[in-house]
């Protein structure tokens, strides 16, 4: 009997949490976020508002642009991880392919900014001159 009470309490808490989250994303600052928002996405949006983060627009060859949020002093590797998370969240919401081989993707594609490859994962984005709302291209590597 105690187990059933715990489950009911958990369900009630979950329902309250989702209701509060729905109210939260109606805030003008957060209204662009999807209904199934994650705590990470809310944190990123707040960090953007306070100037602690920036949006890097990653452009694919097909013309799609993905807005990826990273901290102000992010490295190339942190941008790659944020891009991976962005794609995974989008796929989960759309019910698309659930698994991509990111090892294969980074062997086959690279990121460029103003014609320069972002080759050093440890280098900061700002060292390449990347600022808030700048566009980075996602380009297929040429075979040697």
Automatic annotation (TrEMBL):
GO process annotations (BP): mRNA splicing, via spliceosome
Q: Which Pfam families match?
A: Ubiquitin_4
What CDD domains does the entry give? Answer: Ubl_SNRNP25
List the signal peptide residues. none
Sequence ranges assigned to domain Ubiquitin-like in this UniProt record: 54-144
What's a single GO CC term here? U12-type spliceosomal complex
User: PANTHER family, per this entry?
Assistant: U11/U12 SMALL NUCLEAR RIBONUCLEOPROTEIN 25 KDA PROTEIN, U11_U12 SMALL NUCLEAR RIBONUCLEOPROTEIN 25 KDA PROTEIN
Name of the molecule in the record: Ubiquitin-like domain-containing protein
